[in-house]
Write a structure and sequence with these properties.
Layout (H helix, E strand, L loop, with lengths): L9 E8 L16 E4 L6 E9 L2 E9 L2 E6 L5 E8 L5 E2 L2 E2 L5 E4 L4 E6 L3 E8 L1 H10 L6 H4 L3 E2 L6 H17 L4 H19 L7 H22 L7 H7 L4 H12 L3 H17 L9 H7 L5 H12 L3 H9 L1 E3 L5 E3 L1
Antiparallel strand pairs: 1-3, 2-5, 3-4, 4-11, 5-10, 6-9, 6-11, 7-8, 7-10, 9-12, 13-14
Protein name: Helix-turn-helix domain-containing protein
Keywords: DNA-binding, Transcription, Transcription regulation
InterPro entries: AraC_XylS_family_regulators (IPR050204), Homeodomain-like_sf (IPR009057), HTH_AraC (IPR018060)
Length: 334
């Protein structure tokens, strides 16, 4: 299995030898493609894979005439480049050459006929993730800009493509590439594909940045809301928002006038106050409720609570316990 060549999230490019046509079912990791062998045995070459920051990278060096068809992913977008393509290489029966760039939408059928000497590299990720990374680069690569499934009308710039070809040829001929070099090659592939497919923003930079910051904060808030009872680090929030630590900080200050840490703290304090003031929770201790929302230092929590709400947690709890309700829902003060 191709997945045995790498860990779940690894900057190391794992490599497997192509021993028979069935190995090409995973020409893009996890695709499960239909394969047809058109040249006499043996079909040789190798496949290489890496997974990093929620992105799956695949590469193949194929020595044989083969046909591949089927979706590259049912749920994600795949973008890729042919780094070496012999005459007769075709996508959807149209001949393509070296440095051709392709976009393959989620669930869309890919059809290719590869000749001996084929070398390619692909990246598979969500459209939202792709758009966010392009935004970090100051570029626009939304659904409209990406277009539908197909081959780009322009080839990748020769200088970028030749650099990638050298890096991937080294993996396929010399073995696995790990550590910083493996990560650098993956990042170079994705960067080169984005630069090729994306465009410069048409909006004034201030408007463009504000819109991008809003998207970052929305993604981070969705993650925070779903994990508020768990430890939340800036790194985890940045990963969920598909951005860097620095940009996450800037986005929160720009949109909410709060740092991510301050926003999480105040949200937790509001949840604590809600629980303290709720009849169902009135019998719980302040410590229990505080721990539930990830604030184990009671003294510090109380200080923050008073600063935000103008009273101590004990005062909120005492007021809640002084209120009773009759069966008809009428409120009575003890």
């Amino acid at each position: 299995m191709a997945t045995a060549a790498l860990s779940a999230t690894s900057p190391t490019w794992g490599r497997i030898e192509i021993g028979n046509i069935e190995d090409l079912h995973d020409a893009v990791l996890g695709a499960g493609l239909d394969v047809v062998q058109l040249s006499r045995a043996p079909i040789t070459g190798s496949l290489a894979f890496a997974q990093l920051d929620g992105i799956t990278y695949s590469s193949g060096s194929i020595d044989g005439h083969v046909g591949l068809s089927g979706p590259l992913s049912e749920t994600m977008i795949t973008i890729g480049v042919l780094l070496s393509a012999a005459p007769g290489t075709r996508h959807w029966l149209n001949e393509v050459g070296s440095f051709a760039v392709g976009v393959f939408g989620a669930g869309d059928t890919h059809e290719a006929f590869y000749r001996p000497g084929t070398l390619y590299g692909t990246a598979t990720l969500s459209g939202e993730h792709l758009e966010a990374i392009a935004g970090e680069m100051g570029l626009v690569l939304d659904t409209r800009q990406l277009g539908g499934t197909g081959i780009s009308g322009n080839r990748m710039a020769s200088r970028r493509a030749e650099t990638l070809r050298g890096g991937f040829a080294a993996i396929h001929h010399q073995g696995a590439l790990g550590g910083g070099r493996g990560k650098a090659l993956a990042n170079k592939l994705l960067e080169s594909l984005i630069v090729h497919l994306a465009r410069e923003p048409r909006l004034p930079i201030g408007i463009s940045t504000a819109r991008r910051h809003g998207q970052i904060v929305r993604r981070a808030r969705d993650f925070i809301d779903g994990n508020l009872e768990e430890p939340l680090t800036v790194s985890a929030m940045a990963r969920a928002a598909f951005t860097s630590h620095r940009t996450l900080q800037r986005a929160f200050v720009d949109v909410l006038d709060e740092s991510p840490q301050s926003y999480v703290r105040k949200l937790r304090l509001n949840r604590i106050r809600h629980d303290l003031a709720t009849e169902a929770e009135a019998r719980c201790t302040i410590t229990l409720i505080s721990n539930r929302w990830g604030m184990s230092e009671l003294g510090r929590m109380s200080g923050w609570y008073k600063e935000l709400f103008g009273e101590l947690p004990s005062q909120t709890l005492a007021r809640s316990r002084s209120i009773t309700r009759d069966p008809e829902g009428l409120t009575h003060f003890a």
